[in-house]
UniProtKB/TrEMBL annotation:
Name of the protein: Uncharacterized protein
Extent of Basic and acidic residues compositional bias: 1-50, 89-98, 106-132
Comp. bias (Low complexity): 51-87
Ranges where the record places region Disordered: 1-159
Amino acid sequence: REAHRKEQEKVEKEREKKAAVEMRETEKAAKQQEAEAAKAAKQQEAEAAKAAKTQQAEAAEAAKTAKQQEAEAANAAKKQQAEAAEAAEADKSAKRQQAEAVKAAKKQEDAAKKQKAEAEKAAKKQKAEAAKKAGPIPKRKVAPGGKPGSDQNKKSKAR
């Protein structure tokens, strides 16, 4: 019976030893797994941070581009507005000039008409004065047998 008990104890000790070794190995494996998991998590975190940084940079770049485009659009709009105002001003000026030219032409025309009328009046007056100075218009002599203004008259004068 003693031998059996000793054998039993031996077997028990052996079993305990095995269990302890197994437990150590299990612990070791768990530790290793934990370390790997931590490493993977760290790597993932780093990648996520990197991606976030990249995204942030891209967003900033996009915002910058948008701002630039907005500024350019505003400038273009301003320029167009200025050009439109200038064109309107030029149009106004041209219209004003045209109106002035029409006015001036009318004035000139009126002046010319007035001058013409005055000139005609003066010419008539001069003519009348000349006629007065010359006295009565002498009557033309008519050749015998001829009527005034006839060819006969001319023929006799030629003779």
